[in-house]
Amino acid sequence: MTLYKNIAILAFVVVAACGGSSSSSSNNNNVMTGEVKIVLLHHSTGQGVWDAGVSSWMDTYNASNKKTYSISENWYPADPYPDDNYPYDYWNIWVNHAGSSAYNGQDTLEILTQTYNVIVFKHCFPVSDIDADTGSASVSSSDKRVENYKLQYTALKNKLHEFPNTRFIIWTGAARKLSETDVTTAARARTFFDWVKNTWDEPGDNIFVWDFFELETEGGDVLKEAYASGDSHPNDTFNSTVVPYLGQRIVDVIEGRGDTGNIKGQ
Known about the structure:
The protein is an alpha/beta fold. The protein has ten helices and five strands. Strand 3, helix 7 and strand 4 (167-171) form a beta-alpha-beta unit. The protein is globular.
């Protein structure tokens, strides 16, 4: 009997070491059931996509698939915080000033996760105005540089992992059109968002990416002229085109296909 008991203990240890028990990361490949509350945190570029029919798309999906997914939107950050939503700002609010009290009028993650099961957030196109690295990266710097962005994203990932029951979807940043940038700056933006997709994002956790940058640029480094309005905001035609892609990406994340579904939602 002692031999069999030792074998049983050994088998248990091996199973546990190989991940036989459930974990919070594996749960993110499961289907979220019941009512799922989603929020899109955005500024003007996101407002354009939202206004093109995101809520209506979700209503139609719910009716066709007997689901209860509710989606809302918030301008975030909002007054009195500066009108910026770049890597520094999410780091500043969610990491640097984390806690159960709002910071400068903005809900922290501790507050947002009490209401929402899925949090979608993004950056507007000035995020792509990236200067050259200096070799002196700082997580607390608001300078738009790849070296700083990477530190801020790394800190954000660690923070998001503190909320394993919430799923997060981040858009790759919005691009500039060519007349409002230059090829070197635009290439830095491509470099960073490729890093977000291919290195920063990892399978099995509670963070997912929607590749908005690729939809805007179609393999280039700048917003395609056909998709631009008078400036680097996408036009109504583009916004209407990508609404179902965003909707599908959100649904894939909710229904356990976040790591296997198309990152552009197509």
